[in-house]
Fold this protein.
Amino acid sequence: MDIRGLFLDNPRRRRILVGGGALKVGLCEVELDSTRLRDGKTRPNKPVRIYDTCGAWADPDFHFDTSKGLPKIREPWIERRGDTEAAGVVAHSEKNPFGGREVRRAKSGERPTQLAYAKRGVVTPEMEYVALRENLALLNGVEGGMSPDAPRDSLLRQHRGSPNRPDFKITPEFVRGEVAAGRAIIPANINHPELEPAAIGKNFLTKINTNIGNSSMASSIAEEVEKMLWAIKWGSDTLMDLSTGADISDTREWIVRNCPTPVGTVPLYQALERVGGIAEDLTWEVYRDVLIEQAEQGVDYFTVHAGVLSKFLPAAARRMAGIASRGGSIMAKWMLAHNRENFLFEHWDDICDIMSRYDVSFSIGDGLRPGAIADANDSAQLGELKVQGELCRRAWAFGVQVMCEGPGHVPLQMINENMDCQSEWCSEAPFYTLGPLVSDIAAGYDHITAAIGAAVIGWRGAAMLCYVTPKEHLGLPERGDVREGVVTFKLAAHAADLAKGHPAAQYRDNAMSLARAEFRWRDQINLSLDPERAESFRRKNDADFIRDNGESHHCTMCGPKFCSMRASIEIKEKFKTCGEADAL
Ligand code: SF4
C-alpha cells in the first residue's frame, strides 16, 4: 500500500501542529478558496481546523515505514513521572520487528493512571494534550463568538444545543476534573508511548471506534495494519483489534506500534485461543497471563465481560436471538459447563489491580446486549447494566479508568431509556455503544441502521459510538467496508455534537453551507467527511455535461434553469443582502 499517497493525497487538507513548548498537537487544516464578490473583488476565507486522528502518518517528513513505528511522544512524560520502571525488553522475532522495546510497569505501590493523577489534582501532559486538541472553537478563532443572535448568513450563527450547555471551553483543569469525576477517560497505557491522547466523555467531542482484526478464516498482519491505517485516515478515534485467528500477538504488536489512537482488545479471545478454542477449558490463570501480556504490549483498554452473571442466563435463553456477544456467549458456556459464577466477576479486584499497574482502562463488556430488536431492554440486558455500575465503582477504587459498553439492537423509542439507566446506574461513566441498530431488516446497509441509533444516543450523551460496517452480520469487513463504516459513524458523531451545541461542529457546518451557497465546489469537497468520494462524484458530474464558458453555478442534478442555489444568489441581489453570503 502507498501509505504516503494515502495520507498526503490532498494538498488543501494538511496536518499542522499547534501548541507551545514541547506539547505539539496535530490538527487538520482545510484551506479554502476566496469568495468572488459582486463588485468583482474577492474575499479570502479563513482555513477551517478540524480534529485529526492521523498522527505522524500525515506528516510529509515522516518515514512511512510500518516496521519502524510511530514516534514515542509520551515517553518523556511517562519517565518524568517516576512512578514506573523497566520490566524487561521485547525479544526480536521473524514476525516482530519491534524487538528491543522496553516494557514498563508501575513501581511497587504505585498506580500510574490518569484517574489517580486527576484525583490527586495533578494535570498531566496527556490532559493538556486533550485540552488543546478538543478546543476547536478557540483554534478556529471563534471561541465565545458563536451565537444564536448572529445573522443567519454569518459563520458565527449557532443554534442552541440541547441540553443547553453554555460553552465548550476545554481547559486542562476541566479535563482533569472530568477524569477525576469518572465522567471521562483518557485511555493511555504506559506501554503505548506512541499514543496521541484523546478523551472519551460526554462533555467532549463524540468519539467513534473502529473494530478490525482477523478471524481463523481470513486476513493477515499486513491486511490488518492496512485496515488500521485506513481507519485513522478516515477519522477513527480508537481502534479495537478483535483478532481471533493466526498471529494474534504479532498482529497486535504491529498495530499498537503504528497506531496514534487508543487501541482496545477483548483479552478473552486470545485466552480462548490459548485453550484451543474450547470455552470450558478457560481458567483464570490463562486469562490473567493474557491480560499481563497485552498490557505490556501497550493495549489501552480491555473489554471485560464481567457483568454476565449466571442469574441472567435463563432470561437470555428465552430471547429471540439469544446472546449476540462473542464474549458473553463464551462466558455463558463456561458458567454452564462448570456450574460456577463468571470467573471475570469473581476476579474483578485482581483484574483491576493488574490494569492499574499499566493504566489500562476498562470497557466493561455488554455480554448480554440484545442482538435483535425483540430483545431490546430485557431483564438480562438491564440486569447486566446494573452490575456494570457496581463493577465501575469498584474499578475506580483501584484508580482504573472505566467506560461501559452498551447495546446492540434497540428501536428508536427505547434508546433514551438505555442512556438514562446507564447514566444513573453507572454514575455517569462514559457510555460506549455499538450502534445501536434501530431495525433488523437492513442486511447490507447495517452501517446506516446503526448510525441512525448512534446519532440519537450520541446526542443524549453516549461518549463513543462503535462503528458498524455494511458487512455486519454477513462477513469480515475489508478495507473499503472500514472506510464506509468510519465515515458513516463520523457523520453520526458530528450530528450528535451539532445537536449538543458544540460551537466547532456548527462552525464547520456553516463553512460548508457557505461554500455550497457560493458555488465553491473545491471547498465543499474538502470540508466534507470523505473528500475523495465527493470529488469523484463531482468529476463524474463534470464529465457528464459541457460547461457554458466554464460556468459552474449549477450541477447535473437540476441543471442551470432549475438550480435553486443559483436563483438564491439573484434573490439575495434583489434584497441587497450583504452578509457573508454576498457572493457572485
Ligand atoms: S443544480 Fe441543484 S443540486 Fe446542483 S447546485 Fe444547483 S440547486 Fe444544488
Notes: The two ends are 43 Å apart (CA to CA).
